[in-house]
Design goal:
heterodimer; A: 516 residues; alpha+beta; FAD/NAD(P)-binding domain; 2 domains; 7-stranded mixed β-sheet; 6-stranded mixed β-sheet; 21 strands; globular; B: 234 residues; 5-stranded antiparallel β-sheet; 3-stranded antiparallel β-sheet; 13 strands; 34% helix
Chain lengths: 516, 234
């Protein structure tokens, strides 16, 4: 691509992805699966920059992302220490008591597209939690079962799932797949300078070896450094730490105590005095990390909380400390440069939104890739509107977890409920939900990152009381009862049919899954 | 529970097998694995499918016996009404280890008793004709397993396997959906080159593939058996 002059017609023919972590390689794979044969796609990464490598939980979207890239799911499981994730378990978020927990599963409530079960449950819960009575996935999680059997083909399952994965191994895996199968060119070099044209567009990057790499479109995947969008193009960072207080993380990797210790098929998030601890089970180890607000605790206390959670083996583990800056760029696409991944912004990993946002952004670029430089500003504007909307909704949704907490024991929890820290959009929704349950009409975008069902799981999991109207017709009540019974039936069947998570993962390593 | 003992004339001289009353829990299953060597005989009686073994994900050739779980529509008054009973079933309650060719008997099987049915040994300690027949079956199974796997591998290699959904509505308006069934991809056969067809023909896999395809007609016969049973129960 060196000295590759842009053609006069202004056609977009070449893409340079800068940075090679999960963001860079996922973007490369998503773009190259469609354009690998017709466009010039190159990824440049510095051999000296380490990837941040803590994004280890995905959304179910990762299934189609990998499938569309032509990845064998068996290879992915084997090479990335991957395991199944069927949702998140939030412990101690409501009262902080030992038995305080709720689930946000990955499946919609039973019959969700036809029937809204939330009002029915609010009127008569039958003594069961919301997620338990509308979705069978919580039961699978509590029994540490896999979402499928070995007889089901790759990417197919009885229950919806996402992945836990080893981020380092994942980028290695994607590097191999993208360069060997999808025609992505790989350049290992450190960028020393970025040259712009008069109109501000990025012209080329200069490596320390003084090579020039030009492209029609640049994708900034340089992580928090935000080398192109932030540094070169000077796009402002919008700080959100006034809403989301988390600004520090420390992580460890804990080996399993034995070959028999269950591999939990869900992410556990346990609330602490000034933050929360994630616990993600891979096949090879657990990834455990404490994210906290340095305004509400000290590093020493935070480490102590992590040590208490991990147990006596903590002293043998190395602790990795990562600063966090909650917020995002004011624009994500400026001139001929798009930021994907942490270069665009970062939020605490409470709902594993990081990898999902990478997929969502890369798909947008793939589906609406401008034909010529003249249409690029129009696409860029749309991209910015869409992404700004999504970031807003994610921030609302994360804040919701804090706003609904009844914990009063530390300033962190009390401050989180201070009205001035709650976005106006969320305050409005909360007022609405006092009398209306979230359902399909509440969100304006066709593709919401969090569907109404997710709001239901969190609201009613955390004990929010919507005062539903007693004006319910009988046929609707019967439909609800049928749905709840159907869920119970499926639950019974799933509990007998589905294998233990660790056992199935072992078998996937031994026998593999077939593509049909 | 199974309780296998190595077969010996001294220990099992008086044991008899109740061959005339098949209706035992073991028989209450809606599918049974079959061997490629009995494809024709099975195809004449049952719809045949490929089903994955949930232990290792590998395909097995199976005869479908019913729609609901544990439903064997061929059982009637304790008898199995078909012109051929799949070998992996009719060898019961015996089992032969593949490594050592030793024969074992599951002494907890309800067919095993001391009063009724076929004897295993003659008075002189030699195998009785019934047992000779069983051993022949066990030997056929031992050889047939590998043959069957080879057959399935050939089908997979030529991309001739595809999933099929069975959705049958019965006279009482209730329907039964079966997932996890696979059959032969007919289009896949048409897409083969002459050389590939020839290879497939020579290994016998082509004939096997067509037997499996034709056996799907037996789904109708199976639904008929189910409807007949429903009428009786109404």
């Amino acid at each position: 691509m060196k000295d590759n002059l842009m053609s006069d017609s202004g056609k977009i023919r070449s893409i340079l992805i800068v940075g090679g972590g999960s963001a860079g390689w996922l973007t490369a794979g998503i773009l190259a699966a469609r354009y690998g044969q017709t466009m010039d796609i190159t990824l440049i990464e510095s051999p000296d920059v380490k990837i941040i490598g803590v994004g280890e939980g995905t959304w179910p979207t990762m299934k189609s992302t990998l499938k569309e890239m032509g990845v064998s799911e068996t290879d992915f499981f084997r090479e990335c220490d991957a395991s199944f994730k069927q949702g998140a378990k939030f412990a101690k978020w409501v009262t902080g008591a030992e038995d305080d927990y709720y689930y946000h599963p990955l499946m919609l409530p039973q019959d969700f597209t036809q029937t809204n079960l939330a009002p029915h449950w609010l009127q008569d819960s039958g003594g069961r939690s919301f997620s338990e009575s509308v979705c069978f996935q919580e039961a699978l999680c509590e029994h540490a079962l896999a979402p499928k059997t070995l007889a089901m083909p790759e990417y197919n399952a009885a229950a919806n799932y996402a992945y836990h994965l080893n981020a380092g191994k994942f980028t290695t895996f994607l590097t191999k797949h993208c360069t060997e199968k999808l025609n992505v060119k790989h350049v290992l070099a450190t960028i020393h300078d970025v040259k712009q044209r008069e109109n501000g567009d990025i012209d080329y990057v200069v490596t320390t070896a003084n090579d020039h790499l030009s492209a029609d479109l640049f994708i900034d995947c340089t992580g928090m450094a935000s080398l192109l969008l932030g540094n070169t193009l000077g796009v402002e960072f919008i700080d959100k730490s006034d809403v989301l207080f988390i600004d520090s993380a420390m992580a460890v990797q804990k080996p399993y105590d034995s070959e028999e210790e269950p591999i939990l098929p869900y992410t556990v998030s346990t609330a602490q005095d000034a933050g929360w601890i994630w616990d993600i089970g891979l096949t090879s180890r657990r990834g455990i990390g404490h994210v906290y607000s340095s305004r509400h605790t000290t590093d020493e206390q935070a480490e102590l909380a992590l040590a208490t959670y991990v147990g006596p083996r903590f002293k043998d583990l190395s602790v990795k400390k990562i600063p966090i800056r909650s917020g995002h760029r004011k624009e994500f696409w400026k001139n001929n440069c798009v930021a994907i991944g942490l270069a665009g912004g970062f939020l605490e990993p409470l709902e594993a939104s990081a990898l999902m946002l990478i997929e969502l952004s890369a798909r947008f670029v793939r589906d609406q890739l401008p034909e010529t430089t003249s249409t690029m500003p129009i696409i860029a504007k749309r991209f910015n509107e869409t992404l700004t909307y999504h970031w807003g909704r994610i921030i609302d949704f994360l804040k919701l977890h804090y706003v609904l907490s009844k914990r009063d024991d530390t300033a962190f929890w009390r401050d989180n409920r201070d009205a001035v820290t709650v976005p106006e959009s969320l305050t409005e929704l909360l007022r609405l939900w006092e009398f209306h349950t979230p359902y399909r009409q509440d969100f304006s975008h066709k593709e919401e990152v969090f569907p109404a069902a997710s709001y239901q799981y969190v609201l009613y999991g955390m004990g929010f009381k919507t005062q539903v109207s007693s004006r319910v017709d009988n046929s609707h009540a019967r439909a609800c009862e049928r749905a709840v019974q159907e869920n119970e039936k499926i639950m019974d069947k799933a509990l007998t049919l589905l294998p233990d998570n660790r056992q199935l993962l072992r078998k996937i390593h031994e026998y593999g899954m077939s593509s049909i | 529970m199974k309780n296998f003992e190595a077969l010996s004339p001294s220990k099992h001289r008086d044991v008899r097998i109740m061959v005339d009353y098949i209706d035992q829990p073991d028989a209450q299953t809606n599918s049974v694995p079959i061997l490629v060597s009995e494809l024709l005989l099975c195809g004449a009686n049952y719809p045949l499918f490929l089903i994955k073994n949930s232990d290792n994900g590998e395909f097995m050739c199976c005869a479908l016996l019913g729609f609901a779980e544990n439903e064997n529509l061929f059982l009637h008054d304790g008898q199995w009404s078909a012109t051929h009973i799949p070998l992996t079933f009719s060898r019961k309650p015996f089992h032969m280890t593949q490594e050592s060719n030793l024969v074992y008997i599951d002494i907890d099987n309800p067919w095993v008793n001391r009063d009724r049915g076929e004897r295993l040994f003659l008075d002189n300690g030699e195998f009785a004709p019934y047992m000779t027949e069983v051993i022949r079956k066990l030997e056929r199974i031992a050889i047939g397993m590998d043959e069957t796997q080879a057959f399935i591998r050939v089908l997979a290699k030529h991309d001739l396997i595809e999933p099929v959904k069975l959705d049958v509505t019965f006279d009482n308006d209730l329907s039964e959906k079966l997932n996890g069934l696979y059959t032969i991809k007919k289009q896949g056969i048409s897409d083969l080159s002459n050389t590939e067809l020839q290879q497939l023909h020579q290994t016998g896999a082509l004939e096997g593939a067509y037997i499996m395809l034709h056996s799907l007609e037996n789904v109708k016969a199976l639904a008929k058996l189910k409807n007949k049973r429903l009428r009786v129960s109404i």
